[in-house]
Structures are given as structure tokens and as C-alpha cells.
Amino acid sequence: MLRPGVFRRECDGSFLRISRLPSGWVLELLEPGRPAAEIDPRCCRAVWSEWGKNWGISTFEVGRFFGEEVLLETNEGRRITWRRVRAIDPLTEPQLFEGTASLDERGLGVVRGALSPEEVDAATEACWEYLEEFGILRDAPESWPEDPIGVLRWAGQCRGSWLVRGNRKVQAAFRDVWGTDDLITSMDSLFLWRPWKALDQRTLGGWLHRDDHDPVVNDRCTVQGVVALTAADDSTGGFVCCLDSHLDHTALGWRYVALEPGDLVLWDSRLYHASEPGCDASSYDPKSLLRLAVAVCMVPRAAADPATLRKRLDLFRCGGTTMHSPHKILDAQIHHRGDAPRVMSSVEDQLDPGMRRVL
């Protein structure tokens, strides 16, 4: 049976997106930017026949997909449109996405150098100090966590993350988005990716998705963000998105967004996005993290009701972690680590004025 969704094909890092429109089913292949001949053979471990086995496609053969569009017949006699679209090269053009101006049109904005090199170093050091409280040691790669997608969902009160949230340029970017400086921040996860040599050590991908559709203020949906503390491109892997897909659900072509340490990438939550590994990390230091990044999202304080604001303060005090929506805190979206130290009850003892401003 066909079912809507976005599915990853491990052999070349592509995505298969299945949609059901009034005209019928649509299958869209979102391919990586590099030609198949250049894909690292270590990434090849699946074959096309797996799709047919799972979804009942009777004519799913490799030789059929060299055209732009192909009609397929399924075992159930339905017609399916297959669109083959190659992704564009990684986004490296800062002039096209500088700041927040392109969020409405393209769904993406990049603030270059939101953190200075000194601020990147301070945030990185604070992250390690926090992680080392749990036995995750910077000089012992064997102690680094093996989360399949490289997300620490319990690290919302990491001091390094708070340095990012309290950063004046990060806050200024969200102020530009919302037109107010009275903001509240998510207390979100850390991205921590280990370097890899063997394929089974690589962070998993394949979770291209969209998030909030409901307007927060003045018809604008949530704007999410990530601050890179390490460089990211198509070799390391990192943030990927399908430009324009916040408005056009058929917009195809997922692209890595190249980032330098300290860059802030912002996107409309309706944009198809994910974190996706690269296919070649062999040149990177096995004793250094491949990726360290902080998720951050801010919305106007007015978007949260009084009960939510009180719950946010309680969550901070008990060391909890939220998802990306600061104004929506559901019990199912709160994460704790059992051995996480409790946060001190006094906010003043933990946060500087810039951080307290967005709590």
C-alpha cells in the first residue's frame, strides 16, 4: 500500500516523497546534488526493489527513471506520476539569503556571524563543561553519545545554549522577524554529531518534515533557527531544506545550507527541512565533533498565555528541555535526563540580563 510521507533511500542519500493529490498519487525523488558516479560507495546499501516490495509498485525498475516524468502502474491498477528532480548545489550564496528579508519569499534566512569567534569559543566551552557533568568528555570520543540522529533532547539547560539565546545578534534577528523585542525562547536540544569512518557510525538522515502551520502573530508561523558552532557543508552534513516549500508543497530539491561557526540559519516552520549527514567525513579529525549546533526559536511573549509562562519558569528550574515552539509547552514535548542536575531555583543565579529577557 502506498502511504503519504517522506522516505530516505540510503544508497545515495536521496528522499522519496509520496503525496496524494486530487489528480492521484505523486512520487517525487529528491536527489543529492552530486552525480551518482561521485557518491561514496560506502553509502550504498539499498536497492530500488525495496520500494516495490514495500509499496506494491509492480514496474519499479532502475532503467525506467531517466526521464523527467514517468507514469507507473501499481498492483492495484492505479496510475502514479513519478517526478525525478535533482537537488541543486549546496546553498553558499550569502547575498541571496542574508538576514531575515528572504524568509517570506523563500522560507529561509541566514545571519552570518551572529556569534563572533570569541562567542563561538565561549559557547563551545560552556557546552563541553555541561556535557562533562554527565561523563561526555571532550578528550574521550568513546564517551560521546550514539543518538541515531545526533540530538540531545535532555540538554535544554546547557549553559552554552543559554549563551546563544542571550546573544544580542540572535535576539536581534528574531526581533526583526516579529517586530518586537519582548520575546521568549525555546529551551531546545543540542545537535552533537560524532565523526565517522564506517557507514554504521554515521548520523541517520531521512526525516525531512514540516512543523507548525498555525499562525503565531499577524499570520506569521513559527520561525525556527539553528546556530552552528562548527562549520557545516555537504561533506560534514547538517541542515537541509527545500527552498520555497513553505508556500509551494510541490517545490523540490533539498539542499545543504553551508554555515560557518557562529552563523544563524532561520526558516519558516512550514518549510521542508531536516538534518542530513554528508557522505564523506573521512578527512575530519576523529577526535573532534563533526557537528555541534544549538537549536533556537523565539516568538513574542504575547503569544503565550499566563499558565504557559509559569510552566516555562518551572521547567527551567527543574532542568527540562522543550521542543521548538516557546509558546506551546505540552507534557509530551518535555524531556528530562534522569541524572541531570537540578537547576538552581533562583533565575538570577543562573542567567545574565540578556538571557533572563527571553525566559
Strands, helices and their partners?
Layout: E1 5-9, E2 14-21, E3 24-31, H1 49-55, E4 69-73, E5 79-86, H2 94-97, H3 103-106, E6 108-111, H4 117-132, E7 151-152, H5 159-165, H6 168-178, E8 183-185, E9 190-193, E10 223-228, E11 237-242, E12 254-256, E13 264-268, E14 273-277, E15 291-300, H7 306-317, H8 353-356
Parallel strand pairs: 3-5
Antiparallel strand pairs: 1-2, 2-3, 4-5, 6-13, 7-9, 8-15, 9-15, 10-13, 10-15, 11-12, 11-14
Helix pairs in contact: 4-5
Protein name: Phytanoyl-CoA dioxygenase
Organism: Chrysophaeum taylorii
Work out the helix count: 8
The total of beta strands comes to 15
Which structural class should the secondary elements be placed in? alpha+beta
Q: What fraction of the residues are assigned to beta strands by DSSP?
A: 15-25%
Average the pLDDT over all residues and give the rounded result. 76
Biggest sheet character: 7 strands, antiparallel
Rg estimate, integer Å: 21 Å
